[in-house]
Amino acid sequence: MQLVRQNDKNRLRLAVSGVALIATTAVVATACSSGGGSEPVKPAPGQQAAALAKQRAAAHAAKLKAVKRWGLAKMPLTAPEAPLKKTKPTTRKGFEVSGQKGLPQIFTTIPTKDKVVFLTIDDGAEKDPQFLKMMSDLKIPYTAFLSDYLVKEDYGYFKKMQNRGVALNNHTLNHRYMPGLTYDQQKREICGMQDVIEKRYGKRPELFRPPYGNYNRDTLKAAKACGIKAVPLWNAEVFVDRMDYREWDRDIHPGDIILTHFRGKEDWKGSMPDMIRKFMKTVTDKGYAVARLEDYL
Fold first, then answer.
1. Membrane-crossing residues (predicted)?
2. What's the CA gap between 215 and 159, in Å, rounded?
3. What is d(CA 287, CA 284) in angstroms, rounded to the nearest whole number?
4. Tell me, which fold does domain 96-296 have in CATH?
5. Of the candidates 121, 116, 108, which has an alpha carbon nearest to the alpha carbon of residue 239?
């Protein structure tokens, strides 16, 4: 009886060991089939290509719907990948001030061979929610230059803009004619707006645009003291019903910075979405894409 009980125990041990072995084998097999632990199974190259093609097709279809919904004449052209090596523009000839060396550079065009232009929008007077939605749906990049006396009416509007990837830059506190101010007054206008943007939006800008495009050496000295690295002006300006150009040929060129303003029907013969339709028709007809200014600086 004792021997039989011992044999029964041995059989039980063997049975349990067998179950454990089978379970262990299954675990190992499962691990092997899944790539093992921390390394997930990679899809085959054909599967990756198919998934990428599906994503692109879906994005293109969504953009086509947005183009139709917002009444654009044509599908916007896609900007090339941002350059790996950033461009450092030099001060445009004729835009210098005495003692320019060491001061922020002033430019109207980014040196590039890419057929792109850059849309920039000034001040902050009009706060059209349809404009935000339109630009988000169409994925059109732009850069804002803000003045606090207008922005403070609704800081949240520009926070939504920032959340959509738009850079918020400095256009002074009160949009005053800078050459008519002392150095200290100019510094208060620029540094004060730096403080506002940092407090409200978390980051001090590196780009500054003087109101009306007017400046003197004190403006640039004050800008540098406030942490400004560059002063982008513009080479063309877009309205609801027309484009104005700086150059004699009345045309746009690779790397041109385009100016417009936060304005609506009180000031224009149309809305900000109307202005964007005009702008996109002009640049697309001429074979240009809209790129993000900061990607080229």
1. none
2. 28
3. 5
4. TIM Barrel (3.20.20)
5. 121
